[in-house]
């Protein structure tokens, strides 16, 4: 049998300080039947020359030089050239641990129902300086099964993009990355889950996700929090139409200004709010958009309402989850965390 099992697609731009380490980690994989399609997205530093040197040294590497078109276009260019039956994503500032590609390909081989897989990841930044990113990594590492990933998809992006491997057929059936004023990686996962693609993770730490200051998710407007919530509202409304027995009515846990601003994005998709609930005595009793804020204990019993938890402060999601479960509410049937 000839040809690569896995194609690693890697968009690159102005990453001369990290791309060699990323490439070396790919070429050191225990799975050797691979190819790497690295797209130099109009870099203005030595990135292109470094990639060309890797291609000269290893015939499994293909370098493409293109005018700057953005990360989605570069990623899709790489996907369009891929020959492997599985397509893995990699970022030029991260590192694969040696068994990543083999373990993920094995999971796809063993479970034909899966269309996309990830893995647990190691945070490569400073937990002191980047505490939020570190907590995000820790959270993603708790979501391993399709059910856990699916029911938590509206909290945050549950499968970090550089850890993804998928079947070529999924890209053909559901489309690659889309370009726009939204996070293209989160958009792809939400579209695929909405289409019924099953997702899971290898229960092993298989890559290092670094956190350089110039990471696009820190600097580009499409990755701002509000862009995530706009995209999230669109897909959450579709999910509610299918799964909320009280559609289009929902009950909102949280009544602060930030919560209301983000929850209000649902109204444009036809969702109607029945009530707000809070634990802050200063907010209870206030009237918000014609609705009186109620104490959390007033949340209707299971089966009588569908609740959306929009409180995003540290520890709040876990507290609300414990509160609702103690009252008999079931995740996905009676409530969803969405912040």
TrEMBL record:
CDD domains: Glyco_tranf_GTA_type. It comes from the Bacteria. It holds the Pfam family Glycos_transf_2. Coiled coil: none annotated. Keywords: Transferase. InterPro entries: Glyco_trans_2-like (IPR001173), Nucleotide-diphossugar_trans (IPR029044). The keyword Transferase applies. Residues 7-153 form the Glycosyltransferase 2-like domain. Gene3D superfamilies: Spore Coat Polysaccharide Biosynthesis Protein SpsA, Chain A (3.90.550.10). GO terms for molecular function: hexosyltransferase activity. This is Glycosyltransferase. It comes from Pseudodesulfovibrio alkaliphilus.
């Amino acid at each position: 049998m000839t040809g690569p099992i896995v194609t690693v697609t890697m968009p690159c731009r102005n990453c001369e300080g990290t791309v060699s380490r990323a490439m070396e980690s790919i070429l050191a994989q225990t799975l050797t039947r691979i190819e790497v399609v690295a797209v130099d997205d109009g870099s203005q530093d030595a990135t292109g020359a470094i990639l060309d040197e890797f291609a000269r040294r290893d015939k499994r590497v293909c370098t493409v030089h293109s005018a700057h078109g953005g990360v989605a276009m570069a990623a899709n260019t790489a996907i369009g050239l891929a020959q492997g039956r599985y397509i893995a994503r990699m970022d030029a500032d991260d590192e694969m641990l040696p068994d990543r590609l083999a373990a993920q390909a094995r999971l796809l081989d063993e479970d034909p129902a899966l269309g996309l897989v990830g893995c647990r990841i190691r945070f490569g930044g400073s937990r002191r300086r980047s505490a939020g990113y570190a907590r995000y990594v820790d959270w993603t590492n708790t979501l391993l099964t399709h059910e856990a990933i699916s029911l938590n998809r509206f909290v945050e992006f549950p499968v970090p993009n550089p850890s993804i491997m998928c079947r070529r057929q999924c890209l053909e059936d559901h489309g690659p990355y889309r370009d726009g004023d939204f996070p293209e990686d989160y958009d792809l996962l939400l579209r695929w889950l909405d289409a019924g693609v099953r997702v899971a993770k290898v229960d092993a730490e298989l890559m290092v996700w670094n956190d350089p200051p110039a990471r696009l998710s820190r600097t580009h407007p499409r990755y701002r929090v509000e862009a995530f919530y706009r995209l999230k509202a669109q897909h959450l409304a579709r999910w509610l139409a299918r799964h909320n027995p009280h559609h289009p009515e929902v009950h909102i846990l949280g009544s602060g200004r930030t919560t209301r601003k983000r929850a209000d994005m649902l109204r444009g998709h036809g969702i109607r709010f029945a009530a707000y609930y809070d634990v802050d005595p200063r907010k209870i009793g206030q009237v918000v958009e014609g609705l009186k804020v109620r104490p959390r204990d007033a949340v209707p019993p299971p089966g009588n309402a569908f609740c959306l938890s929009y409180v995003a402060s540290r520890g709040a999601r876990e507290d609300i989850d414990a509160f609702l479960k103690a009252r008999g509410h079931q995740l996905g049937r009676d409530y969803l965390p969405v912040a």
